[in-house]
Amino acid sequence: MKFQEKCYKILERVPKGKVTTYKSLAMALNSKAYRVVGTAMKNNLNAPNVPCHRVIKSNGEIGQYNLGANKKLQLLKSEGIIINNNKIDLNKFEFKFS
């Protein structure tokens, strides 16, 4: 299985109403390839079915989205995630991989 496919598979564990970070997703895959995770999300052809809109920056910023930043904001808000000043409170909304 390619790294990109592994990213999508583990991302499916993040439920509606929660987010993860590029770093956390990479770490869940036993990798430090945070940028490669970002590239995988960028190249996701099955968005939003593969919920790459739920992957954000480690500082809580929204980051990019292949369907546009406004669409990412819309999807996150529709899942009940509160966004203030283009940031998400990771203490409240971050999904922890176990």
Question: What is the fold's blueprint, element by element?
Answer:
Blueprint: H1 3-11, E1 20-21, H2 22-28, H3 34-42, E2 55-56, H4 69-78, E3 83-84, E4 87-88, H5 90-93
Parallel strand pairs: 1-2
Antiparallel strand pairs: 3-4
Describe this structure in words.
The protein has 98 residues and is mainly α. It has one domain (3-93): Winged helix-like DNA-binding domain superfamily/Winged helix DNA-binding domain (Arc Repressor Mutant, subunit A, Orthogonal Bundle), CATH 1.10.10. 40% of the residues lie in helices and 8% in strands. Strands 1-2 form a two-stranded parallel ribbon. Strand 3 (83-84) and strand 4 form a beta hairpin.
Indicate the CATH architecture.
Answer: Orthogonal Bundle
Low-confidence stretches: none
Q: What is Rg?
A: 12 Å
Question: How much strand content do the residues show?
Answer: 5-15%
Number of helices: 5
Please, how many domains? 1
- CATH superfamily annotation: Winged helix-like DNA-binding domain superfamily/Winged helix DNA-binding domain
Cα separation of the termini: 21 Å
Tally the beta strands.
4
Shape: globular
